[in-house]
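Subject: complex prediction, re-run

Hi both,

The earlier run crashed halfway through, so I resubmitted it with identical inputs.
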Amino acid sequence: MLLIHCPYCQEERPETEFRHGGEAHIARPTNIADISDEEFEAYFFIRSNEKGVTFERWRHAHGCGRFFNAARHTVTDKFIKVYKAGEPKPTLAELGLESGESQ
Amino acid sequence: MSGAYRIAGKGRLTPARQARFSFDGKFYTGLEGDTVASALLAHGVHLMGRSFKYHRPRGPISAGSEEPNALINVARDATREQPNVRATVQEIFEGLKTNSQNRWPSLEYDIGAVNNLGAPFFSAGFYYKTFMWPKAAWKHVYEPFIRAAAGLGVAPKEADTDHYANRYAHCDVLIVGAGIAGLSAALAAAQTGASVIICDEQPEVGGALHYEAGTTVDGMPGFEWAQKTAQKLAAMDNVRLLTRTTAFGYYAQNFISLTERITDHQAMVEKSAPRERLWQVRAKRVILATGAIERHMVFDGNDRPGILLASAARTYLNHYGVAVGKKVGVYTAHDSAYEAAFDLKRAGVEIPAIVDTREKPGDAVMAEAAALGIKVLTGHAVIKTSGRLRVTSMTVGRSTKGTTTKYEIDALIMSAGWTPSVHLFSQSRGKLTWDADNARFVPGTHAQDCLAVGACNGTDGLANTVEEALGAGELMARAAGAAADAEKLSLNTETAFEWTGGMVGASEGAGPDTVAKAFIDFQNDVCAKDIRLAVREGMRSIEHIKRFTTNGMASDQGKLSNMHGLAIAAEALGKDIPEVGLTTFRAPYTPVTFGTIINHARGSLFDPTRKTPMHDQEAALGAVFEDVGQWKRAWFFPRAGEDMHAAVNRECKTVRETVGMFDASTLGKIEVVGPDAAKFLDLMYTNAWDSLKPGRAKYGIMLREDGFIYDDGVVGRLAEDRFHVTTTTGGAPRVLQHMEDYLQTEFPHLKVWLTSTSEQWATVAIQGPKAREVIAPIVDDQDISNEGLPFMSVVECKVLGGVPARLFRMTFAGELGYEINVPADFGPALWDALYERVEAAGGCAYGTETMHVLRAEKGYIIVGQDTDGTVTPYDAGLGWTVSKKKTDFVGIRGLKRPDLVAEGRKQLVGLKTRNPKVVLEEGAQIVADPNQAKPMTMIGHVTSSYWSEHLGSSIALAVVVDGHKRKGETLYIPMEKETIAVEVTDTVFVDKEGSRINV
Ligand SMILES: [Zn+2]
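This time it finished cleanly. Structure:
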């Protein structure tokens, strides 16, 4: 069981309190009704599925209820950073990683 | 008394403390502290089991948890019985009953051993190849035969009456293994003030010191030092010492699972005592001191009872005081077997010869062998052995062929060297590196905050081990934040010999491929030739070779078989060992009982049970309940003499003719509040909410972004800024999650608050022509006439003389209907008051089954039954719920996807059977032409099907390709015994114009 730090509660809590919410930083198009099939495919179906650092959403479902984002390494399961919803996606350099190290 | 092979003055057990136990119905006397294996060996019994595939007679090869052969059934009574227990681990106690397995009629005469004669047929991959064809034979011939013959042991038939405990623990340093390395690390860590947990799978600490007779630590015999150290550690407040406790799984973030065996060794078990305790430990730092496991030699006939690992023979002698034989042969490629031979010789056991594959064993052991007068044959191999139920001879020759000599023996001990126990390190996702000089894998790059010390780290020599462990203990404690002053520890150690040598793979004596039974994996009966066969048949990956041969599978998990199998595969593939790579080490390290894993989560504690506030009232009325998710819902209310069918028919009839009441409390409810509440619901539902007036309600459909129906329910607008949203019973949590997701991450600018109120309201539905007269007297000061409270309205009012309520005029039955919500605590009072009125009006309570029939008669869908996650509102005939004016809602773009607007979609329709008495099966497949060739083209399936007492016929809903265009067509449902003709109809079977509702 993972321990996850909730950036709102400022606490490390067990994984069972959280619910995974899929890949982060995929914004819903504001003109969604008008986008092309290709744009809809890219928005709704295509995910990066990284081996390495992945940016993903979590919800502290059995805690504060808030959605937040995390950078996690999919091989080691290590959380590199958690940050609040709406904050920009950190660069690898900001995560203390060289580009290429994400693999 | 305790056995002819018990050597006076040897071992650490007390001769006066005896215990009697049985094995295969025969009674034996052992000593307290014996395992079943040591106690039987003391009586000269080596034969303890039969192998899995060939049913070969087998005895214990080891003295520990790596044992592949001596698997027995242990029973306390009928409900507390366990198969596949290692005789080398199970401690004896007075009255213990044990039995051998995998044999019939007896261990000595086993019919299944014909598998052994047919061994060529049972070669590697035999399951995959032999039973491929013909198909029918698999079902009728092969599978029944394999089912009968396969499997080790027999699962107990009765439910386990033991109970199991569970604890979570946090510590600074967790140390796995309490041999000299683990104990040293614990000493160093504990004196810094760090909180320490140290565990060991054995009944007492010591690890290798169990058999290391010539070792002293701090001037004490090693084993004695270990016990004193354990006492010292156990007395410290910051240390928890757990014996009989196996660390079996190493998970992310230093989360380690331990299983503590509490009562399995006790003759008298306290009723309150748990049998086992699962520890889930979160450690800041972990030290692995899991030691090493000795490897066997791979040669023809290396599996006969009486053939053991050298260290096991030393353990039996030095700890249990038992000699494994009177004339013991030795076959080795490593110095450690010499020490076993020396110990046995000094205890009076005859050693006919030490056969060593090496030309140059260690000088020290050679000198000692000479001093003790033991013959050493260097550069020799054991070519074969004989003896049916016990080894009786070994045949020895020069490695390079030539003359052979046969030695009469009654036991043979062996050592090919030591394999570091890297299981947990590997489970932690640490990377192993290949130590070519010593032909072993050792911990390399760490993935987690852990260190390996001692033999499991490939550290050789006692002094090196202690120094490394002391350093690691302090380092890890400091890293975890321990700050107390502590002096630098050191321990003086002395040991008789430093070992050299070791080999992996088949030795010279493995013999020719066709006949030799040179076992690598004893439990799975995998021989050297099987590995070579796997390579010949095209397996290249070690993972494929493992699965093809079953090498290292089941409980072995690479303990004994791994390195030999790998070395032989590498040789056959012409590659280096690290190039071939290791198979994955998986948890659990040793088998863990289901009881420990399931723990408290069984029976009523398996899953929470949710009951509505009116549960007791319904039970008192004789309700039969059904499980809906975690809810117990009243299914139907049978009266005397009624079966389910009769009760449901009566309930349906009563609702349509007079009135019925129904507990709808399980419906999900979400309070949506705020200035932007309507705007938010406009985005979440296909419908338009802005135009809905306060006091009115509407049926809403919620989609996912892909355009498929996600949930549905009635939403009432209580005020401009307040909505009472209902969801399906099962959908409440995910609908709230779905709403929160959009509110927090896509539409955070909207001022809306969402609150789950599912449990806050008790809800009773009153449906039927007499609904209004039933509720009238209990509603305070509220006009409930058709004009005052028209269909699809909601009002906040009082009921029962002052109880606040939300009164909906709505129906899921197609009748004049109301749903009354009151605070949950008032649910029983509301139910009682209504029931009295309903009964007086000639009505009844009805359950979920009647609710389903009534709604199906009206064509109202159940999300998840009539839809399956690929159904759009248009498919379901609910296109009218989709607002044409809105420019955005979740699913608006998905609905326009090419596949969703194309022809040929499955659409919801009604079905009427040609014979109205025939009720279709839900899930049945529908075809257009029943005479077409098989496999037929299936064009849909039945989603809901009931007997309608009101109509006197069956009714059904179904999804059918282009169903909306097929109304009036005849379709067919081929069943096992008959083909049923059906007519495609509208989905509404009762009161198409809604005249029963608007009254
Ligand atoms: Zn939180």
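The domain at 3-27+36-97 of chain A is CATH 3.30.2270.10 (Folate-binding fold).

- K.
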